[in-house]
Each structure stands twice: as structure tokens, then as C-alpha cells.
Write a sequence for this structure.
């Protein structure tokens, strides 16, 4: 018996040990599994990310797109926020029926009075209907149950065969579908009023969500639309596209945590980045000039039944583009900004290109202005290998250089060019002069906005090089965009200095200028002084006795220098042969300030103009008159013995206040800073210049020209003791501007 019990005991101990081993193995396996899952398996990370995505969400906070502004700060394109209130009628906050009806009825009356689109009863009915539908029926199913209770009732039901009946039942869920309650989106000012109304002044995010939408608007309508551009699904072009990154800014982000029913709250200490709004792009466009250019061009296009046209106004010394109008005919017959013709249409310019020929002959070939050629009274002639060269008018025979320019003689310039560059075999020297000296073979710096590269040959290995040379003399076999032509003429007005046009003046964020753009010098001088003087004299003759005399002969008010041009477009189209007519002018001729170009494409039609003068001249004339008359309003010129219409002196002080004051009498105000302190100078033309003061601590500011109150405030804020004598504006200060100062020092100012 002893041995038997011992054997049983041994079996039991063995089994126990085996169990221990199994437990250890199982624990080890579990441990190893945990280690593998935590360190090597992607399942945990996947599940964690999945859970986190349900609880947390990364929200993008959009940056506000910057505005596009005129030179005076008028908005050409800007972004505004639109708002809509989306109600959750199943919100627990609206469970109280009495409270809901009381608040909803008040809200209905206020919304009806605010929007005036429907009566308050309609709003109230909508609110009650939506509130009644706050529960949604889901998961329908059929359920069978006993018809009656009690044995006797069920006995009779069984006799009738109606012991059981079937009915469909539904589960219910709160319907949190948002419902827009405004008939339209509202702007910020409207929302500031609406948010005080009943229910809308409750928990935003629990009772309702505020939906914000960034809308791009164009306050000036279609004015300069192809230059400004569009965004979104309606198209991307113009400044909107070219400066897309600068305008867009950088979006921010915020980590939000799910609270309940789809509402999220910001996580404190989460990964947040505030959005950086886009830059404001300040253009050089003058809204008033742009409007006049648009109207003048549109009127002429309509009168002449033309195809398209462009008008450009440029400041001579700065290269800033003040107006850029582009109008093309719509399928319906009207005119709108369909294409930026000023930059994208590279075409044969016709006689306006004779300016290049004039400079080439005078400056490179050293031809005397007294050189005479027979133009054959408008009859066709052969010049070198080119046949049928003729002038568009009769009456001229042997004429000199000046008369050839005034009458725009094709024959004269064809003969002169052939004699000096054709017979002599200097065609390459001619094209080199156009490219390297006149810089006509290169763009002028607006490629970002769609400027097309000009086409002027440098390779004379063509079937008819002689014909090409003769044709180029009067503006054929070359292609330039209108913006390149006006840049060329502007160089003549600028004394030979060719500068790039400027359309974007600066990038600004608020009142702080982040980047400023100025014209670059393409060439310090494109010709000799003598050649420039002769060309300028000839361009004035075009206005007094030549092809532009119908518009600018009267020199009593302002003297104009101009050139007209007509190019016959070789590709025939239906409705008559197309022509390109241009007029380019700068004024005042003796002290140029503005250059104006108008180019119009049309077809030869009975009773309609197609030559450059009568086709484009009226538009340029209107622009010259408007700028001249506006300038006189600005400058306040009167008789020498009459009263002044502008102040002799303006006190310095706060720059923002000075700008408001000077804007009343002189829009011609220049300043290097929009805020702060500044001094003012005004010249005899009522041009106002505001110079910002040095406001560094420890540096003496220049208070001359300031009133006493402003001077005291500024000096005492620097810790100075001030003594003063006299009255008026500060004329002298005992401590010179820019000197180092210490707190407590005494300065004496004298007012006169």
C-alpha cells in the first residue's frame, strides 16, 4: 500500500509540474506577443491612429487672401467673409418645447424684419417643422405579438384566426442634420447684428454652427479685369494668377477634439499654427484714369465697329502704368475685357515702328535730316528688290526727313534704309542696332503677367532678305506688343533713358510695406543727344502739320509729340481685310510727364476709319485732354496776379492726418510712410511731399514746419524740456535734427 500511494503522489506532482510549465510557457508566449505587438506590429499604431482620428481632427485654418489695390488704395480685388447659421434642431438645448417656441417666435419676427423676404409666420413655421422632425426613424422591422390579453379574449381571437398580428416598428435617432436659417449669406457687419438675436446668442457650436466662406469680390466691376484677373472656377489669370502665392498667404492649423454629436473643441496645448494672411498687392493703376480710358476706348470701338483695342497710360519718369484698358468684341456684339491685348498681342506695328528707323538712320547711319528723296506723289515704286511701295497719301514729291516723318512716308524711309543698309550689305548691323542699342528684341519685364516676346530678325538667311529690310523700314516683318512700343516711345520722352514699365508698386501687409518695386533701367541712353533732339522735333511736327494734326494742332494749352501708324494684316478674314491702327503720344512735349498709346484692330468697312490717326487718335486725344484738365485741377493754376487756390505751407505732424487734409485739395500727394510723424513741402504746382521723421529714441527729430502742439508732444515724448517763442509753425530749433540727445535736455524752438 505504501508503494502504491507513493506512485499516485508522484503522478500528481508530475501533473502539477507540467501545469506549471504550461502556465510559464503560456505567460511567455503572451509576453512575447505583447512585446512584438508593441514594438514590431503596425496593428497597434493603425488602431491607435484610427481611434485618434475619431476623437481628434486636424483642422485647416484658411488664411485670408490679400487684396489688389490701386495706387491710391482703392480695392480692385478683395476678399470678404460670408456667414450662414446652420441650426441643429435636435440639440438638447432645444428640447424644452416652451422655451424653443418662445425663442423661435422672437427670432422669426426679427429675421423677417431684417431680411424682408417673407413674413414672420413663414420663418416660425419653418422652425417648428424642423424642430418636429428632430427625430429620425431608422431600422424598420416587423414584429409579431398577441392581439389581446387574457385567456378568454385570446380564445375568441383564435376562433377568428386573429390571435397574432404583425406591426412595423422603427428605432429613432436624433437628426442632427444642420439647417440653414438665413435666406442668404450675410457679411460681417450683418452678422454682428444677427448674432444678438434669440437662439443666435446661445451656445455657438452646440445649438448651431457658424459657416464661414471666403468670397472674392471685385468692387470696380469689369474695370481692368484682364489685368487684375479672376480666381476660382471662373478662371485664373492676371495679377490674381501671377501673384497667387503672395496673395494666398499660408494656412494655419489647429488640433480639435470631438466633444459630442459631431461638435469639436480646440485641444489646449495642441499643435496649432496661426494662419498668415496674404500680402496686399498695390498696383500703379489710377482708377479714375482707368475708367476714362475704358470709356474712351469702348466708345471708339463701338463707333468704328472694331474688333479689339488697348489703351495704355504710362508715367514718363517712373515707368508706372496708370491705366491699362483691354476691350474685345463679345459674341453678342458688346465689348469686354476678354484678353490682355497690351501684353499678349505681338503684331506688326506699322508706321509707329518708323521711330526705330528714324533713330537708326540718324544715329547709326549718320544720315543728315536734310536728305531728300522723291516719294512719287503716292504712286507705287520699286525700292531695291521690293515692289509696289507707296505712300497712303498724295501731294508729296521731293521731301526731307522732317516732312517724311510728319506725313509718315513709306517710300522715303524704304529708300533711305535700302541706300544705307541694303546696297551696302549692312543688314546685320541694322538688326544688331535694333537689338543691342534700341533693345527692341527683348521683353520689358512683364513676362510674369503674360508679356509675349517680340520678334525682330537676327538671321538674314531668308529667301528675300532685301524685301525684309525694306519692309522693316516702315513696320512690317517685325512683331512687337503694345507694351513694348509704348516703352520705346517713353524712352524718347525720357531723354533717351529706357526704363521698364511698372504695374506692381509694392507688397504690403497692413500699413507695413514688405517689398517695393521700381522700374529698372534697360538702357541709360538709346541714342545720341542730337538724334534724340531731332526725333523729338519731328514727333512734334506730326502733331502740328502731320498725320496727328487733326487732334493736337492746337498748342495753346499743351504741346504733344506723337506718331500714328497703320498696318495691313496679311491674313484675310471674312468681313473685310483687317487693319491695325495705332497712335502713340507723349506730353507736354517740352517737359514730358505722360506717354499714351492706343492700338485698335478693325476691318475695312464703308464709312469707318482704319488708318491709325482717325482710328486711335480720338482715344489718345481724350486721354490727353482729361489728364491735362485734371492736372490743372490738381495744381490750381490761376492768373499770376490772382489768388492762390492751394496753401503756401502745410504744417507737419501726424502723417495720416496730413494725408486726409492734403487729399482735399491735391490728390497729387507723395509719401514714403503712411503712418507716424512727418514734415510737409508743397511746390508751385500744389504737389505735396510728406517726409517721415526719424523717430529713433535718443535722436533729435526735425520739428521744423510743425505746429506748436505737435512739436511739444513729439519733443516731450523724447524726454526733452521745451521752450518756445513766436506763433505759427516751427521755423528753427536749437538742437539740430539727427543730433544725439539725452533725457532732460532743453531745446528752444522758434515759431513764425
Amino acid at each position: 500500500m505504501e508503494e502504491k500511494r507513493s506512485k499516485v503522489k508522484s503522478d500528481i506532482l508530475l501533473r502539477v509540474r507540467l501545469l506549471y510549465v504550461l502556465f510559464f510557457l503560456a505567460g511567455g508566449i503572451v509576453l512575447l506577443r505583447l512585446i512584438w505587438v508593441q514594438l514590431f506590429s503596425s496593428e497597434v499604431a493603425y488602431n491607435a491612429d484610427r481611434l485618434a482620428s475619431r476623437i481628434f481632427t486636424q483642422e485647416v485654418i484658411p488664411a485670408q487672401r490679400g487684396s489688389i489695390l490701386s495706387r491710391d488704395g482703392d480695392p480692385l480685388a478683395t476678399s470678404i467673409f460670408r456667414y450662414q447659421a446652420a441650426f441643429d434642431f435636435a440639440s438638447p438645448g432645444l428640447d424644452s418645447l416652451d422655451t424653443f417656441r418662445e425663442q423661435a417666435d422672437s427670432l422669426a419676427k426679427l429675421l423677417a424684419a431684417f431680411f424682408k423676404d417673407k413674413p414672420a409666420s413663414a420663418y416660425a413655421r419653418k422652425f417648428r417643422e424642423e424642430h418636429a422632425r428632430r427625430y429620425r426613424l431608422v431600422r424598420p422591422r416587423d414584429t409579431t405579438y398577441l392581439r389581446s390579453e387574457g385567456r378568454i379574449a385570446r380564445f375568441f381571437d383564435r376562433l377568428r384566426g386573429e390571435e397574432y398580428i404583425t406591426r412595423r416598428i422603427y428605432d429613432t435617432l436624433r437628426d442632427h442634420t444642420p439647417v440653414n436659417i438665413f435666406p442668404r449669406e450675410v457679411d460681417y457687419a450683418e452678422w454682428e447684428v444677427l448674432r444678438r438675436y434669440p437662439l443666435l446668442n446661445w451656445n455657438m457650436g452646440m445649438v448651431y454652427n457658424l459657416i464661414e466662406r471666403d468670397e472674392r469680390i471685385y468692387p470696380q466691376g469689369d474695370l481692368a479685369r484682364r489685368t487684375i484677373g479672376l480666381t476660382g472656377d471662373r478662371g485664373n489669370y492676371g495679377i490674381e494668377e501671377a501673384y497667387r502665392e503672395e496673395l494666398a498667404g499660408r494656412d494655419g492649423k489647429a488640433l480639435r477634439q470631438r466633444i459630442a454629436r459631431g461638435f469639436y473643441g480646440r485641444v489646449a496645448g495642441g499643435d496649432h499654427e496661426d494662419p498668415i494672411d496674404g500680402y496686399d498687392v498695390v498696383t500703379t493703376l489710377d482708377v479714375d484714369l482707368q475708367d476714362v480710358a475704358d470709356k474712351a476706348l469702348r466708345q471708339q470701338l463701338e463707333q468704328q465697329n472694331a474688333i479689339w483695342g488697348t489703351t495704355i497710360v504710362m508715367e514718363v519718369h517712373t515707368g508706372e502704368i496708370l491705366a491699362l484698358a483691354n476691350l474685345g468684341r463679345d459674341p453678342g456684339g458688346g465689348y469686354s475685357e476678354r484678353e490682355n491685348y497690351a501684353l499678349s498681342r505681338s503684331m506688326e506695328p506699322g508706321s509707329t515702328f518708323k521711330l526705330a528707323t528714324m533713330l537708326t538712320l540718324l544715329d547709326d547711319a549718320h544720315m543728315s535730316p536734310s536728305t531728300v528723296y522723291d516719294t512719287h506723289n503716292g504712286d507705287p515704286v520699286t525700292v531695291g528688290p521690293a515692289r509696289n511701295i507707296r505712300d497712303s497719301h498724295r501731294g508729296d514729291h521731293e521731301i526731307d526727313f522732317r516732312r517724311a516723318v510728319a506725313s509718315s512716308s513709306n517710300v522715303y524711309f524704304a529708300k533711305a534704309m535700302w541706300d544705307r543698309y541694303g546696297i551696302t550689305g549692312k543688314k546685320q548691323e541694322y538688326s544688331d542696332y535694333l537689338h543691342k542699342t534700341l533693345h527692341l528684341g527683348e521683353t520689358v519685364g512683364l513676362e510674369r503677367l503674360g508679356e509675349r516676346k517680340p520678334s525682330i530678325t537676327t538671321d538674314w538667311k531668308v529667301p528675300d532678305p532685301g524685301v525684309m529690310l525694306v519692309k522693316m523700314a516702315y513696320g512690317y516683318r517685325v512683331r512687337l506688343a503694345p507694351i513694348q512700343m509704348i516703352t520705346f516711345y517713353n524712352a524718347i520722352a525720357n531723354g533717351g533713358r529706357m526704363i521698364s514699365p511698372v504695374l506692381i508698386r509694392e507688397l504690403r501687409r497692413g500699413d507695413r510695406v514688405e517689398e517695393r518695386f521700381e522700374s529698372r533701367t534697360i538702357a541709360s541712353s538709346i541714342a545720341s543727344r542730337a538724334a534724340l533732339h531731332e526725333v523729338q522735333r519731328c514727333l512734334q511736327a506730326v502733331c502740328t502739320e502731320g498725320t496727328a494734326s487733326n487732334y493736337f494742332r492746337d498748342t495753346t494749352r499743351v504741346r504733344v509729340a506723337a506718331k500714328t501708324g497703320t498696318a495691313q494684316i496679311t491674313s484675310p478674314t471674312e468681313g473685310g481685310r483687317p487693319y491695325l491702327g495705332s497712335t502713340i503720344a507723349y506730353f507736354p512735349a517740352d517737359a514730358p510727364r505722360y506717354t499714351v498709346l492706343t492700338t485698335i484692330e478693325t476691318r475695312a468697312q464703308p464709312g469707318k476709319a482704319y488708318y491709325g490717326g482717325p482710328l486711335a487718335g480720338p482715344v489718345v486725344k481724350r486721354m490727353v485732354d482729361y489728364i491735362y484738365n485734371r492736372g490743372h485741377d490738381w495744381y490750381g493754376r490761376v492768373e499770376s496776379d490772382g489768388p492762390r487756390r492751394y496753401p503756401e505751407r502745410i504744417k507737419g505732424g501726424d502723417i495720416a492726418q496730413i494725408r486726409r487734409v492734403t487729399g482735399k485739395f491735391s490728390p497729387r500727394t507723395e509719401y514714403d510712410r503712411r503712418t507716424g510723424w512727418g514734415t510737409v513741402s508743397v511746390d508751385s504746382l500744389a504737389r505735396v511731399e510728406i517726409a517721415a521723421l526719424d523717430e529713433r529714441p535718443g535722436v533729435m527729430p526735425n520739428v521744423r514746419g510743425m505746429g506748436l502742439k505737435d512739436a511739444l508732444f513729439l519733443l516731450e515724448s523724447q524726454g526733452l524740456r521745451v521752450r518756445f517763442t513766436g506763433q505759427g509753425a516751427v521755423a528753427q530749433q536749437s538742437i539740430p535734427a539727427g543730433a544725439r540727445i539725452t533725457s532732460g535736455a532743453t531745446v528752444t524752438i522758434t515759431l513764425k
Summary: The first strand starts at residue 56 and ends at 61. Residues 78-226 form one domain.
